[in-house]
Amino acid sequence: MSAFKLLRSSRLHTCVVFCLAIVGYSSKQPTTQEQKQQGQVQPAQTQPAQTQPAQTQPAQNQPAQNQQMPNQQVEDQQGLNQDEEVQMGQEVFNELKAKGEIIESSPLYDQLKPIADAITQAAQPHYNHPFKFYLVHETQPNAFATPGGNVYVVDSLLYFVKNKEQLAGTLCHEVSHTIHHDTVVLMEKQEKIEKREIGAAVLLGPTRAHLLAIALIGKLHSLGYSRDVESRADLTGSDVCAQARYNPWGLVWLFQDFKSANPNEIPQLLSDHPDDDNRVDALEHHFRRNPAVFGEFNPDPKSGTPIAVPKDAPEVFSH
Q1: Domains contained in the chain, number
Q2: Which secondary structure element, helix H or strand E, spans residue 245, and what is its range?
Q3: Which of 253, 262, 298, 319 has CA 20 to 30 A from 61's CA?
Q4: pTM summary value
């Protein structure tokens, strides 16, 4: 997936204009009411704004021995602190809500919530802020995670995947980017590259988290992670899937389906690099090296659990 490119002059102009627009509220200290702004998206009964651990799917397996989950205390000492990550995530949430993309309630949450609950239970010990899953409306199947714990699932992704295991694999991949702070690292690199060009905006008052959020909003669909970063998210994602009791082979099946899919329908989050065979090989090697964790899972795609998504499911958007 190619990185989002803009001309140098237009990038400076856009950043300065955007920063001017947010100066009015960026200087305020968050009040208790503001801190609860995300909670204002009141879901239908099937969609809590914050997913709760699923009690019926215990996380029994441990991470594979050669793919240890990151140490939270060590990673928190690097880059943005956790409060700044939440601030970045809130900026993105506000932008998506202002654009009318966040789905407040829909029968689609009936399919998403149980999977999100199980993944949350498995992944939450490795990240200091609660994971929250939101449906958003866009045309191309996709999912993306932002700093602070929010995971956004495009409604059309639920129609693209063939089974629950493919959906779980996709979400575990995205959660892993958050666990590894991949988006923060990428945005910090971008900040260094464009430091001179955003210098004028810095003088206007926004914090570093605000500036990184501005950059992130413009790159949500073209983050351009490196091959190594994507591969690490695949492997950690498979560990999370195993802990959540979803077959980790679902991600492999999804890659294999890419070969026969319409290029315009391939989820962007998993098509950043065209050489999917290497990612499949890495996953299969990971499974073979850790039979105690992955040996119980069936590699046959026919063993997948069909996902029942109502056609043209109604959606109520948050405003």
Answers
A1: 1
A2: none
A3: 253
A4: 0.70
